[in-house]
Amino acid sequence: MSFHIGAKKSQIAKTVLLPGDPLRAKFMAENFLKNPKCYNNVRGMLGFTGTYKGKKVSVQGSGMGMGSLSIYVNELISGFGVKNVIRVGTCGAIQKNLKIGQVILATSASGDSGANRYYFEGLDYAAAADFDLLLEAYNIAKKKKIKTLQGNIFSTNTFYDDNPNRWDKWIKHNVLAVEMESQMLYTLAARLNARGLSILTVSDNIITGKASSSEDREKSYTDMMKIALELA
Ligand code: HPA
Description:
Strand 3 (about 45-50) and strand 4 form a beta hairpin. By secondary structure, this protein is an alpha/beta fold. The protein has one domain (about 10-230): Rossmann fold (3-Layer(aba) Sandwich), CATH 3.40.50.1580. It has a 5-stranded mixed beta barrel, surrounded by 4 helices. Helix 2 (about 65-80) runs parallel beside helix 6. The mean pLDDT is about 95. It contains 7 helices and 10 strands. The structure holds hypoxanthine (HPA). Hypoxanthine (HPA) binds near residues 178 and 204. Hypoxanthine (HPA) binds near residues 92, 159 and 179.
């Protein structure tokens, strides 16, 4: 039984791509999958299954933040036997030189998740991508001539914060960008014996204040999705 996903086990693929926005899940399913079928609309958090190059793949909205994502990832893995959970999302760069549209493969995710600290009784777990998925994504990108950056990112539960120096330490330690889901995705994938990877597109630069135009967004999201879909 699943509280938040109203589907039968057979309706969801072993590989699930997870955009935060449920309407992006719909867009991805309608534009990239063959014969997509919607299997979930509980709370409007749309999920679809179709095929890509003959392989069954699902796309499920995760919502924003680690609280929301953890509900869907827990249910997908524990309730539906999902093996690969692949986030396809956006992030705000904190390194000045990072351009809008840059695709990042998150090797690891630092963060401020209280739930993570709670799981590990106050100690700091290093939430990391599954290496095989990461390597495969890297090779796919290379073959498709999509330039990716690999590195540590930061997942936060607070989008709004009034500390102007908030990211200084993280910039100094080579953290590339900030988003709101990957730390928990990686922890849960490890904990529940699945494989996790976050593929991110820079939608804004928090330091320079630059943000993407809608055309930039469309094109670079397509790069990210191509990598994710090939992984299925
Ligand atoms: N903060 C957190 N998450 C984000 C951002 C940001 O600036 N941009 C895209 N995802």
